[in-house]
Amino acid sequence: MASQREPYDVEVFGGQKCRLYPSDNWAERRVITGSQFFDLDERQSLANHISQGSGDYVFVDAGANVGLYTLWVRSVAQKLGRNLKALVVEPDPVNKARLGTNLAANQASEVIHCDKALSDKPGEVWFESANLGDRGHAKVAESGDLCVQAIPLLDAIRDAGLTKVDAMKMDIEGQETRVLRAFFEDAPREIWPEVLLIEIKHSDDGLDEVLNKAGYVASFANNTNGVYRLNESTASGGTKE
Coil, strand or helix: which one is 81? Predict the structure, then answer.
């Protein structure tokens, strides 16, 4: 494989087809060099959750990159005989093109793609996309080179026709607190995800307070990610209809 030029067309996660460009994207590189190793504890938490129920499993991938987490969830759901309904949110032009290729390769019609950035209110935001050493670092930034449409998380979920969320993975490069604060204020509680896998390396901006107020309890955390479960008995956040 070392002598082959990009892209690499491979199967990962027990049969999910991907076209990968590992040279400029850590997410793609870590899968192509060892898909069984990345985020082991985080993925085990999600796998356990998927195995506990039946019927449709609803997954939201906020900051989907090229769709690898969603394809992994898809593979687990397939093995367990559960139907997947998924929403992937990815506004970066390069990543969303790769994401579209990966979804099409798997005929993953059960996955809906929102190509807007997430924010606390609708509008336009500046987005940093050009000249990145790692495409996973594409993000909302005042110094961005691209103007993109922005949408609240609740609107993205409703636009996808989802009425519940079993689990959500969120990695939106420092915008997590702003987006989740607005979501918990506006979304009816029945649509809040039961399990939340979130990047926490930006958590000094009030993320812990937002999650605690909403009633989420950490079941796992490392230096990068945390897995939280919704505990209804401790929730104190408000909702609106």
Answer: coil
**Coil vs helix vs strand at 168:** strand
- Burial of residue 130 (CB within 10 Å: 0-12, 13-18, 19+) is exposed
- Sign of the alpha-carbon dihedral angle for 28, 56, 113, 184: negative
CATH of the domain at 216: 3.40.50.150
Number of domains, the chain = 1
76 belongs to a structural domain: yes
Range of 192's domain?
38-118+150-234
Q: How far is it, in rounded angstroms, from Cα 69 to Cα 67?
A: 6
pLDDT for residue 238 is more than 60? no
pLDDT in tens, 151-190: 999 999 999 999 999 999 999 988 999 999 999 999 999 9
| Residue 210 neighbours by CB under 8 Å, 6+ apart | 177, 180, 181, 184
How far is Cα 180 from Cα 232, in angstroms, rounded to an integer? 17
Alpha carbon distance, N-terminus to C-terminus of the chain: 53
Q: How many angstroms from the chain centroid is the CA of residue 218?
A: 18
Identify which of 100, 114, 125, 235 has the alpha carbon closest to the alpha carbon of residue 175.
125
Residues 6 or more apart in contact with residue 151 via CB below 8 angstroms = 114, 116, 117, 118, 119, 122, 159
β-strand partners of 150: 117, 123
